[in-house]
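Late entry, fe (ii) ion complex.
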Amino acid sequence: MGFKESSTKENLVRAFAEICQDNARLGFIIKKAKNENFAFIALELEQMQKNKMAHATIIYELMLEYLEKTNDNVCIESGYPFESQSLSASIRDYGELEQYKAKNTFKHFEKIARDEGFNKVADIFKAITFVNDNNAKKLFYLADRFDNKTLYKSKERVLWECSNCGYADESKAAWDNCPLCNYPKGYVKFNLQMKKD
Ligand SMILES: [Fe+2]
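Prediction complete; structure with ligand written out below:
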């Protein structure tokens, strides 16, 4: 099957559109986090946003490669949810979008690409699925801590670290203002290690 007639071509365009949407949605959440003085959360989400830009570049370059230097304009339909939420609800909702893409959309794209013989594209979809799934786990973990009011508290003594100056101290709760640089609590780092299912 030729690329131009394939469903994989349309799915690459869908993936590109999804990732561009992700970039904007993350930007909205980052703005919200900054406005509410959650500087470290904004920093983590900015890293996620950079990863999305890398994915968009990979997909775009794949399209150009398969179109063999011919120009094309592809029309697609897609879903565009519009919601206004608190910071923690926005994080959870975005986590659900990432999880849906990992478990459904990109998995489906991968299978079709494999069936149509575009294994290189299928492998890229598979790898992006891993990142989306990892993002979803991090975002749910973060939203849970927000909802449980345990962002800066722990039952056990843990190491808290300031993302501005690097000051660190072990205790059951983070400081209100960093003892070294005086930056507020929002700069305290979280360990967003991927949680196992
Ligand atoms: Fe500090």
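The CA atoms of residues 84 and 90 lie 8 Å apart. Will revisit in the morning.
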